[in-house]
Every structure is written in C-alpha cells, then in structure tokens.
Amino acid sequence: MAHEDDPLEHERASWKPSPGLAVAVTDPVRNPELPPHRERVTDQDPAAMKRAVRTVYTLFYLSIAGSIWAIAAYMLFPIESGRIVDIRANNLFIGLGIALALLAIGLGGIHWSKAIMSDKEFTEPRHATRGRDTTRAAAIQAFADANEESGFGRRVLIRNSMIAAIVASVAPGIVLFRGLAPQNTPDHPHAGDPVYLLSHTMWKEGMRLAHDPSGEPIRAADVTLGSAVHVIPEELAELSHSDGYLEEKAKAIVLLMRLLPEDLIESEEKKDWSYDGIVAYSKVCTHVGCPVALYEQQTHHLLCPCHQSQFDVTDAAKVIFGPAARPLPQLPITVDADGYLVAQRDFEEPVGPSFWERH
Q: Quick one: 159 exposed, middle or buried, by C-beta within 10 A (0-12, 13-18, 19+)?
C-alpha cells in the first residue's frame, strides 16, 4: 500500500495532458487543396493556340504521308526479284514509312493533350456507384464535358486529320499481309490456289531420296534400325534460291525412319508404300506447318515441337495427341536397281496445315 506522502503518487494524481498533444491526436489531417493554376502560353495567346493547332494537324497529315510512302515503297522496291539490293531497299523504306506514320501520330496526340486540351485541375469526390438514372445522366454529362474540354467535337480539322492518320496507318499492314498471298499470273495460273500448290511437290516417280541439305542419295542398306533421316528430293539440291529452292523444299521435306517390318500397321492399299520397314512421311505438321523433327525410337512417335502434336509412325502417322487434325501424308517409296531409295510418285494428298480449304 502506497504512503500518503509518496511524491510519485502525488505526481500521478496531478498529471494532465498537454494542449498540444490533444490537438495532434484529435484533429484530422488538413486538406492541402490544389496548387494554384498556371496558365499555358496557348491559354494566354490566341496566336500560340493557332500555331499549336496547326502543328497537331500537320503531324497527323505527315503520318498519312508516311503510310502512303510505305505502300509506295512496297511497290517501288519489289522483293520478288530476289536481288539483295531490292530486299534491303524494300525493308528500309517500308520501315521508315511505317515508323514516320506511327511516330507522327504519337507526337501529334501528345502535343494536342499538352497544348490544346483543357488542363484545369479539378477534384472529383468519391461517391457510391449505383446504376440509377442520375448516375447514367452524370456519365453522359462527363462524356460531354470531356468532348468540350478536349475540343474533339469542336476542332474539326484536328479531329478529321487524326482519324485519317489512324486509318491510313493501318493500310501498310494490310498491303504487306496481302502481298504474302501469291497471285495468279499467266505463267503461274495456280499461284493463288494453296490447295493446288500443296497438292504438288517435287517428288515424282523414280526420284531418289537424298540427305538434307547435302543432296547425297540414300541407300536402303545404310538406313539403320531406329534411325530418323531428314530427306529432300535429289534434284532439289541442284536448285538455287532464285529458282524457288526454299518454296519447293518447304513442301517436299520428308522424314525417313526404319522400323521392324512386323511393327508396321499397314492397310492393304498401302502395303507397298514402305520398303523393308523403311517409311517416309512428310515433315510438315498438319496443324500449322511446323517441322515435325523429333523422333522417339522406343515408342515410334513423332513430335511436333511447336504445339506438341504427336504421330504414331507404326500406324500410318495417325494423330495420337495434340491439335493436329489429320495424319502426316506418306510418301510411297521403293528402291532402284542400284539399291537407292526412290519415290514411287508424289504424295497423294496435300501436305501442310489442314486449315486450307480442301477439295
């Protein structure tokens, strides 16, 4: 029990909180308010505002010019010639045109927002979000206010030039993608028909199978059990790039494998398509055309590394997993008098992706 003359007890009884401490605990943080508004040069000088407006729509028109130049460069420097100088000029000038088109749109939009649109600060109080008519009316009013502040509806020249620049900036992409599709010509009447093009490759009766890329013919006796050999037509190695080497190779590439003959499941009409357990299948995946190049010799499965489609080599390369929609086309093969592997004929169905319309 504390003594009545205890000085510590007397101090506890007489203690009171200081006024400053009470204010710090109970008063809320003071709102600093918005800083004083500083007007821009364009707000003070009408001539400066006119110059800013001219600058913005000039940038948008410059963007249109860049888009038009990209399209013109695509036509002026065709890459179909195969000459390296044309390919370099095509890439350079198309790239410069597209870069100018996009850069001018960006600079014009930034200058518009910095120098022309309203920049007055305002505070928007928080409120409950409810789908009432008053809320809908407020949203409509907000769009109207934004249109008024930005000048989008009022400044017709800027608005129309910006819309034209955005539309024009898409045109080079459309032209370039359109150029990826081959066009029919008198010399190549089927150039624009992917089904016809993928239905015919370089393979023909008696053409030897050759190693990719050396072009060395392959003897049946040299293909070991469990091996997988990358194959091209022998005549393909004699072509140059200007003669369509890559285009023909993309369709004719083949993967050659040797299994035990008793492991093969062959239909009656395809029993003579293989030779002593050696089978040849198109290397082009029937999903989107990636190269099927991974062979697992224990399971006899072919794997496409792009989207994981798997094909069973023992059973006519049927799809056993993944997005591919049909088996890999099989190349009928046999041997010639010298023991070299040769094609009996071309593939009997189109090679490549299944998304092309097929007859």
A: middle
